[in-house]
Write a structure and sequence with these properties.
Metallo-beta-lactamase, Chain A, seven-stranded mixed beta sheet, five-stranded parallel beta sheet
Length: about 425
């Protein structure tokens, strides 16, 4: 039985010249949740869509007369249908056709044949238009497996963002990226198109790249983006740790298309999504990222050190600029390596105390603060205590910012 996520009635128009497909989709979407209209003649489909103003249209890519691309363009350029979502359905498995559909304005692409739950999941993803944010590793410096890290997990930095149009962003490639890769293989996501944003090349942020399974899958397309280190490019940084002296597999063993891009402090568009970068207070060249999507924003700010105001290294100008960078973010994922007491012995190490981070999140009007990059010597109880410490600071400020200590494997919808 297909599990439905919403109770409201969704008006759907299905356009396909194959009566078997129309019958199958009608069976899959049977019930009170959907009001279904089916059309076999694509030449008459647009007028019917305009008359009925559906929430969603499902259209076959290849049809005589008016094909799916033409119909998509008609719908997406008509002002009265601006809010109508569009999913292309096709037996064509080729990357070109899927990419072309998105270029014409499609909100989703589904390959025939598909199972009932696949169709429901795709419809939900397109209509909700939400980002799925998943934490695959929340530790810093070193992985810490064992009984003391069972609650929050022991893997190092890795966070993924999955968007409705299948854009896939990964932030850092600590040991958590291996579990991410395994999950993608289990989901049978072939031809993965992903962007891996590296904050900086310290080992806990890059050393599990060789264990990311999609890199060895033919047809995948993976770009690695991040800051160079002066005259050392991002490609050179990644390939150096896979030199035969240190690791038995080199870049030449990858079956996927893998390429690299050096970033500075700038604003770029990646797969149609705005990404801003910010140089951070950390040894070497380290970048923070802000992703802006459909009125929502996620800031990934690790590793970073906030110096106390009474410290000579405190930089008010830098802190002001970072506040502006994170202003109003829906999610802030910052470096909060130390408790306040621990930080006193680690000033100048490039990491922050949890209270200072909580204060920063409040000042930047962040909606939700996700505690991240925990010290390897901290066990689950220590992280619980850091969460309590952050909550106390925010309560003392009468802040509207909520604070969460994500566990490895936690998913959040934004």
């Amino acid at each position: 039985m297909v599990k439905h996520k919403e109770k409201r009635t969704i008006k759907v128009v299905v356009v396909d010249d194959d009566p078997l497909i129309l019958e199958t989709i009608s069976l899959y979407l049977k019930g009170d949740r959907f009001k279904l209209i089916t059309v076999s003649d694509s030449a008459t489909a647009f007028d019917l869509i305009l008359e009925n103003r559906p929430d969603l249209v499902l259209v076959d890519l290849i049809m005589p007369g008016v094909d799916g691309l033409k119909l998509c363009k008609q719908i997406k350029t008509h002002e009265d249908l601006a809010d109508t979502k569009f999913i292309m359905i096709s037996a064509k498995i080729y990357e070109f056709d899927e990419k072309r559909s998105y270029e014409f304005g499609a909100d989703g692409y589904l390959i025939k044949p598909f199972q009932p739950q696949q169709l429901i999941n795709r419809i939900d993803a397109v209509l909700e238009d939400k980002i799925t944010m998943t934490f695959w590793g929340v530790r810093g410096t070193l992985p810490v497996p064992g009984e003391k890290s069972l609650k929050y997990g022991g893997n190092t930095s890795c966070v993924s963002l999955e968007f409705p149009k299948k854009q896939f962003f990964i932030f850092d490639a600590g040991s958590g990226i291996k579990n991410l890769g395994n999950s993608l293989i289990e989901r049978n996501l072939r031809r993965l198109r992903a962007k891996i944003f590296i904050s900086h090349p310290h080992w806990d942020h890059i050393n599990a790249i060789p264990f990311f399974a999609p890199l060895y899958t033919q047809g995948s397309d993976i770009e690695v983006l991040g800051a160079n280190q002066g005259d050392v490019t991002m490609r050179e940084l990644i390939s150096a740790q896979m030199d035969g002296v240190y690791f038995p597999i080199t870049l030449s063993e990858f079956a996927a298309r893998v390429y690299f891009r050096d970033l500075e402090e700038e604003t770029i568009e990646v797969d149609g999504i705005e990404v801003k970068t910010k140089l951070l207070s950390h040894p070497g060249k380290c970048l923070g990222y802000r992703v802006n999507y459909q009125g929502r924003s996620i800031c990934y700010i690790t590793d970073n050190e906030f110096f106390p105001r009474d410290n000579t290294s405190h930089n008010a100008h830098y802190e002001k600029k970072l506040i502006e960078f994170c202003e109003g973010a829906d999610a802030l994922i910052p470096d909060c390596t130390y408790t306040d007491e621990e930080y006193k012995a680690h000033v100048g190490w490039g990491h922050s105390s949890v209270s200072k981070v909580a204060e920063f999140a409040h000042t930047a009007n962040v909606k939700a603060l996700y505690l991240f990059h925990h010290d390897p010597d901290q066990d689950d109880n220590d992280i619980d205590n850091k969460l309590s410490e952050a909550e106390s600071v925010l309560n003392g400020l009468s802040s509207s910012t909520i604070v969460i200590a994500p566990k490895e494997g936690d998913h959040f919808k934004l």
